[in-house]
Amino acid sequence: MSDTGGRLPDTCTETHEHTLGMADSRWDGWPSAARDLARKRAARQVCLTRVGALAATLCIVGVNLAAATQLSPAQADKPGLAPTLEDAQSHFYNARYKTAADLALELRSRDPEDLANLELRSSALLFQLKALLEPPGERHTTSDKREKERALKACAACPELMAEFFKDISQGQGLARARLKKNPHDEAALFYLGKLDLNYVWLELGPLGRRTGWDEYWEARRSLEAVIKEHPGHVRALVARAWIDYIVDTKMPWGTKWVLGGGSRKRALAAVRAAAAIDSDLYSHTEAEFALWDLQVRERLMAPATELARQLALKFPDNKELAAFLASRETSVPQRTQQR
Q: What range defines the domain where residue 131 resides?
């Protein structure tokens, strides 16, 4: 409230009173006192109308400016706009794993309890470790445990990456378990708990070559199966559950496979292929497609793997892993043709 006590400024009323007095003759013949009062009231009404119109205009401008500052997913990857988790996902699927991990950590300040953020960053850290500890092509073969131990000792960057990885896994597991205590049917908590557990198992059985993480294995299996039971079309849960089948069949000796409930690489491949055919959001579908490509390469299904890699490379042109795979296929095909 201004010092006018809610009244219009005198200059406004006086200006319009003068204009009305000069231009309007409807009060001619009135007594002077009545004529002056009528002019003042008319001038005040003109001021109120014009001030109201100005206020409405300013309000509309303010609303439009506010709307313009709201970021949509489609704007997220444009320079100069605030980054989102979708930007980190884009970096991840373009094989820029360090950038994805760094951005996820930066975004976490907005929501320290974001399970999607913790899962994505742990995945990005896992893929950095796989790149450092598994030579090209080794992820598709069985390697000696002693070789893995030597690779780990020779890796200067690995201790810090592993510390960050296990920190994110532990934090995410704690948050998910706390949510499930309050609501055992929390689908998001069940999924992310299963996915975080699976990332843990992957690191231990894969790059590190350690046969440990059984508690995480069973928790992941139960959590993901609970999600699929309630939501049979949950693409990411279907893909993660398929990886469990694949891990058990390819990483465990026969006796251990039986103890762990069995596994099947063929069933895993069929499940991921079916998940990739389900209509889903961009990054759920992308995860299924990359999983399918990975499994096809592991199973030496090179013709469909090459075709899928070409499709993925169109969507993620900066992915050097796809580019390297496609380049190797282009050189290997002529060689086989010459040998024939």
A: 84-209
